[in-house]
Amino acid sequence: MTSTPSRLAHAGRTTITDVARAAGVSVATVSKVINGRYGVAAATNERVMRVVDDLGYESSLVATSMRRSRTHVIGVLVAEFEPFALQLLHGVSEALSDTAYDVLAYAGAVSSGSHHGWESRSLSRLGGTLIDGAVVVTPTVRLPETSVPMVAIDPHTGPASPATVDTDNLRGAREATEHLIGLGHRRIAHLRGRGDLESARLREQGYREALQSAGLDVDPALIAEGGYRPAEAAEGAAALLDLPTPPTAIFAANDLSAIETMHVASGRGLRLPDDLSVVGFDDVPEAAATTPPLTTVRQPLAAMGRSAVDLLVRMIDDGAEPTHIRMSADLIVRGSTAAPRA
Amino acid sequence: MTSTPSRLAHAGRTTITDVARAAGVSVATVSKVINGRYGVAAATNERVMRVVDDLGYESSLVATSMRRSRTHVIGVLVAEFEPFALQLLHGVSEALSDTAYDVLAYAGAVSSGSHHGWESRSLSRLGGTLIDGAVVVTPTVRLPETSVPMVAIDPHTGPASPATVDTDNLRGAREATEHLIGLGHRRIAHLRGRGDLESARLREQGYREALQSAGLDVDPALIAEGGYRPAEAAEGAAALLDLPTPPTAIFAANDLSAIETMHVASGRGLRLPDDLSVVGFDDVPEAAATTPPLTTVRQPLAAMGRSAVDLLVRMIDDGAEPTHIRMSADLIVRGSTAAPRA
DNA sequence: CTGTTAGCGCATTCAG
DNA sequence: CTGAATGCGCTAACAG
Q1: Which pTM value belongs to this model?
Q2: Residue A138 near residue A158 (C-beta atoms within 8 A)
């Protein structure tokens, strides 16, 4: 044996080289055995396998992905792991447990700075090699087309990307607002979502349309910024409630904002839903856990995740055409809405 | 120039080579600029930076991780993305948003086969290269020690790994059972968790101890398998309710099992909590959303995720010693428990 | 059937 | 201050 004698068993991982040395074969042979390719004697095969087991060797995803085109890993790219993305992830994971794919979720909105959004950054960092395809959650920028197969969930520009999954935001928002109108509310406020998201614009539009259809004026003073996030929502809600004649109902652009709104209202001694009705959007698990439980528009998040994966896998495996999938958004009436007090 | 002339601008990603060519410098120079190292003229620096921005270049995680020791990515290894892991992930993500680390969550329980568990496989595949450290959620096997820094959450063997975060399962289970006893229940069943998990054993032990302390017999017929998963839990619950004299209360080893138990009970026309009291464990968001809302033992999941990350980052950055962190588990009484009917 | 060779995209010496 | 060579762990040709 003339292999480098100075090489000790290194610190961390077991590499293919370690296996090769222990089995007395070349790394190429080990590679063949591991990948079940032809051209290896049965005896050799078994010997290598035993060493692999003994050493607990597992090929490095990183190294493999550099040489191979397929890694059998699907990437889910999110800005951060908030409830919305989490529920999506749940569906993705479920759908993938029937397939040969593993899931890798990446939250890349941390080390910011570049003028590119997190979506492009994450795609650049993972794409092409590490993952066979990507599910991108609420991307805000147009995504590069030259990359891996991907489907966007609730994307910024609506169906601009080739493959998308979203819900009927316009209709859902109309239903929510009409529900409040039907209850007898006349001063209905809206806590906006992130202005750069198509979904947020559609929800606001649905709110406006419902009001107008009912012959109600859209009062600009009753539209505040919520940004889809608790911190901004708290400010927006406070501003609304500080109005000389505050609204009797608030339709928030998502559940997190709605829940925050409820906190703000409770903090001011308002009783829900008697003094203020609140409606959200999304129906994350947390929505049903508030007191009173939140009336909201349900997006079938897990189902959206599953649909996205189904489509993606078909695109990867069968070269299926990218399409647009639109799911329905349905009002779920719970306890946070009631008729305004006389 | 004798470089391969046949090389075209390739399909997918922008590589460091593209940037170098566009900026008219060598890849080494680009590398230095990107990593902010000394030895580059200011003018060159700026020119390269502009090209980087123009092309939207972002270094490949894969390639980088092969050569570098640090990637500034923390891995969260889970079997699958169920509510428990999701909540943990939420805390992890939160805690990491203050740091320079990105989060990468990997669900590796899919392509099984090897006698190693998913934890070891995932660690082998990602460790050492892709991630700087790992948070492993409910590992069931003893983890190799020679790998990257890691902390285990709710591990199989209890505090066998050097760094762990868990809750006081024994105490939580006792409280849950004592609550039922205090309500007047005498036939209290237990829906077991996964037998290979320390947490499940402790919860059963807490149940037994509480019964014994109250002078009640532990009836083996009242202990069924739940496996922490809805499918098994449904069977276990059905078996319990099929007993000649069924229990008046069921303490399930986790919320998913408890929720499934409620479904099974409702499906048989039982009214909750009058005909049957149910207690869970974990307090995932879904627990408060059931009707009636589930009485359960709260594990501070997000806080556990945060603690795990805090510890891990200190281990990576400052070489801190691994420790064991135990958090308290507290009973949350909601509507799914009541005194048994006379 | 098995070993040798080349190179994936990048960071890192080490000469210019 | 810059550029050419080297190798990370692995797979795909090809040679023996």
Answers
A1: 0.86
A2: no
- In chain B, where are the structural domains located? 5-59, 69-166+301-327, 169-300
pLDDT in tens, B146-198: 678 999 999 877 667 889 999 999 999 999 999 999 999 999 999 999 888 88
Distance CA A134, CA A130 (A): 10
Q: At B258, which amino acid appears?
A: A
SS3 A336: coil
Q: Do A144 and B56 touch (CB under 8 A)?
A: yes
CATH fold label, A5-59: 434 Repressor (Amino-terminal Domain) (1.10.260)
Question: Please, which residues bridge with residue B281 across strands?
Answer: B297
Contact assignment for B83 to A106 by CB distance below 8 Å: no
Q: Is B318 exposed, middle or buried (0-12, 13-18, 19+ CB in 10 A)?
A: exposed
Nearest to B289 among A107, A110, A285 (CB): A285
Cβ-contact B141, B119 below 8 angstroms: yes
Distance of C1' in D9 from CA in A59, Å: 9
- Cα dihedral B11, A35, A103, B104 sign: negative
Is B169-300 the same fold as B69-166+301-327?
yes
Domain B69-166+301-327 of CATH type 3.20.20.80: no
Q: Name the CATH superfamily for A169-300.
A: Response regulator (3.40.50.2300)
Strands (E), chain A: 73-78, 102-107, 133-137, 150-153, 164-167, 188-192, 223-225, 249-252, 277-282, 295-298, 324-327, 330-332
